[in-house]
C-alpha cells in the first residue's frame, strides 16, 4: 500500500540496511552468493504473495517447486545429499528468510533444523542413508513432535506419549500439539516415553501410511499463520524398530541436543524478523509526510530507528559468536539458551517500536510490520519459553537448579 510521496530529495536517501556491521562479510564469496540468492528469492517470490496467505491462514504450496531449487533443505548437514555449510551460513540464510517472512522461515527450520537434524544426530547410518537424501531433495517434508497438549516446558520429565515394545515394532499412543508442518508433511519425528525403562526415545513415523496416526490442523492463531500447525493423535500406531532413532543415547538427551542447535537457530530467525520490521519502518519513515516533510526527519522517529538498529546489531553479534562456538563444537546448552532468551526479548522491543513508528498503519498487514509484530510473539514462546531459557542459564552460572 503506497504512502504519500515525499518531495524529491536533493540527494538519494540511503536504502534500508540492517546488516549495519557487515556481518555477511565474514562469509566466503560463494556463501555470500547463496545468501544473496535466498534474499532475491524471498523478495521476488515470497514477498508479493505472503500477506494474502498470512491473512487466509494458509500455506503457499505453489512456492515449493521453486523453494526446492534453492537447495537449502539440510543446510548445515554434511553428506547424504545435503548441501553442508557452516553454522554461520545456516544462520544468515535463516535470517534472510525471516527478514521477509517468519512463518516461511519456521517451515524451513522445522524441516531442516528439527526433523532432518534429529535423524542426522540421533539416527543410525542406515537411517541417515534412507531418509536424509529424499528430505534434502524435498521429496519428503518432515516435522518434529515433542510438545503435547498437557506438556510444554516439562517435556524432559513429564512426556505423556508412550512407546511400548511389541516384538520387532513399537506401539505409540498419545498426542502432540503445536507441531509445525504436521497437517501436510510426510515424516514425523515423534518423541515418546518407553514404558519399560522410562526413557524418552525418538521414532520416525510415516504420517500417511501409519494406521492410527491422525492430524488436526490448529485454527484461530494470531501468529505464524502461514505455518500449518497440527495436533497429532496416535492410537496404537505400530512403528517398526528400524524406525526408532538408535544412533544416539536413546534418552531425552537426543532431543535436547537437537534443541540446542534450534534454539540458537531461533535467535537467527527472530533477528531476521527484527530486520524486516526495521527496514519496513525505515522505508516508511523516509516516505511518509507529516507537517510537510518526511517523518524520518523528526528526532523522536530517528531515536526509535536507532534503538531498533542497536537491538539488531547486538543480537547479530551474539549470534555470530555462537555460530563460531558451534563450529568449534563448544556451544553449550546455557549459551544457546541465553541467545534464544536475549534475542527474542529484544525482538519484542524492536517490532513494537516499528509498529509505534507507523502509527495506525502499523496494525495493517499491508505494511508488513503487523505481521512481524504478531509472529514475534510466537517465537518468543516456542523452542522453550523465555522463562525456561533463563532457568537453564541460571543453573549454569550459579551451579544451583531452580527447576521444580
Automatic annotation (TrEMBL):
> Residue limits of the Acyl-CoA dehydrogenase/oxidase C-terminal domain?
259-397
Q: Look up keyword Flavoprotein and say if it applies.
A: yes
Q: What is the lineage of its organism?
A: Bacteria, Pseudomonadati, Pseudomonadota, Alphaproteobacteria, Hyphomicrobiales
PANTHER family in alphabetical order: ACYL-COA DEHYDROGENASE (PTHR43188:SF1), ACYL-COENZYME A OXIDASE (PTHR43188)
The cross-references to SUPFAM superfamilies, in alphabetical order and at most eight, read: Acyl-CoA dehydrogenase C-terminal domain-like (SSF47203), Acyl-CoA dehydrogenase NM domain-like (SSF56645)
Q: Which residues form the signal peptide?
A: none
Q: Which residues form the Acyl-CoA dehydrogenase/oxidase N-terminal domain?
A: 28-139
Record Pfam families: Acyl-CoA_dh_1, Acyl-CoA_dh_M, Acyl-CoA_dh_N
Supply the alphabetized keyword list.
FAD, Flavoprotein, Oxidoreductase
Domain called Acyl-CoA oxidase/dehydrogenase middle: residue spans? 143-237
MF terms in GO: acryloyl-CoA reductase (NADH) activity; acyl-CoA dehydrogenase activity; flavin adenine dinucleotide binding
Q: What protein am I looking at? A: Acryloyl-CoA reductase (NADH)
Amino acid at each position: 500500500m503506497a504512502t504519500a510521496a515525499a518531495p524529491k530529495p536533493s540527494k538519494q536517501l540511503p536504502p534500508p540496511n540492517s546488516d549495519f556491521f557487515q556481518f555477511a562479510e565474514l562469509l566466503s564469496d560463494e556463501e555470500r552468493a547463496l545468501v544473496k540468492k535466498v534474499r532475491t528469492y524471498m523478495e521476488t517470490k515470497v514477498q508479493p504473495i505472503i500477506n494474502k496467505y498470512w491473512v487466509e491462514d494458509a500455506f503457499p504450496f505453489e512456492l515449493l517447486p521453486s523453494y526446492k531449487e534453492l537447495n537449502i533443505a539440510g543446510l548445515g548437514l554434511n553428506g547424504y545429499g545435503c548441501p553442508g555449510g557452516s553454522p554461520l551460513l545456516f544462520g544468515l540464510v535463516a535470517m534472510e528468510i525471516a527478514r521477509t517472512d517468519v512463518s516461511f522461515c519456521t517451515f524451513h527450520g522445522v524441516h531442516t533444523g528439527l526433523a532432518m537434524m534429529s535423524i542426522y544426530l540421533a539416527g543410525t547410518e542406515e537411517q541417515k542413508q534412507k531418509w536424509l537424501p529424499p528430505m534434502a531433495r524435498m521429496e519428503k517434508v518432515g516435522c518434529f513432535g515433542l510438545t503435547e497438549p498437557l506438556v510444554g516446558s516439562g517435556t524432559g520429565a513429564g512426556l505423556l506419549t508412550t512407546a511400548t515394545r511389541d516384538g520387532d515394532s513399537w506401539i505409540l499412543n498419545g498426542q502432540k500439539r503445536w507441531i509445525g508442518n504436521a497437517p501436510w508433511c510426510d515424516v514425523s519425528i515423534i518423541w515418546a516415553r518407553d514404558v519399560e525403562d522410562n526413557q524418552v526415545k525418538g521414532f520416525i513415523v510415516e504420517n500417511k501410511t501409519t494406521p492410527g496416526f491422525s492430524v488436526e490442523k490448529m485454527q484461530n492463531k494470531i501468529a505464524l499463520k502461514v505455518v500449518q500447525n497440527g495436533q497429532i493423535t496416535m492410537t496404537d500406531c505400530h512403528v517398526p524398530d528400524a524406525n526408532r532413532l538408535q544412533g544416539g543415547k536413546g534418552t531425552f538427551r537426543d532431543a535436547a541436543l537437537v534443541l540446542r542447535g534450534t534454539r540458537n537457530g531461533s535467535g537467527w530467525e527472530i533477528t531476521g524478523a527484527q530486520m524486516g520490521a526495521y527496514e519496513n519502518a525505515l522505508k516508511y519513515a523516509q516516505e511518509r509526510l507529516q507537517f510537510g516533510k518526511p517523518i524520518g526527519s523528526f528526532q523522536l522517529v530517528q531515536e526509535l530507528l536507532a534503538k531498533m538498529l542497536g537491538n539488531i546489531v547486538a543480537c547479530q553479534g551474539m549470534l555470530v559468536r555462537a555460530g563460531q562456538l558451534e563450529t568449534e563444537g563448544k556451544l553449550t546448552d546455557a549459551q544457546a539458551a541465553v541467545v534464544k532468551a536475549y534475542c527474542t526479548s529484544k525482538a519484542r522491543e524492536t517490532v513494537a517500536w516499528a509498529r509505534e513508528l507507523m502509527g495506525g498503519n502499523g496494525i495493517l498487514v499491508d505494511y508488513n510490520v503487523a505481521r512481524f509484530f504478531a509472529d514475534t510473539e510466537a517465537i518468543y514462546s516456542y523452542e522453550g519459553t523465555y522463562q525456561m531459557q533463563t532457568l537453564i542459564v541460571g543453573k549454569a552460572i550459579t551451579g544451583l537448579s531452580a527447576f521444580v
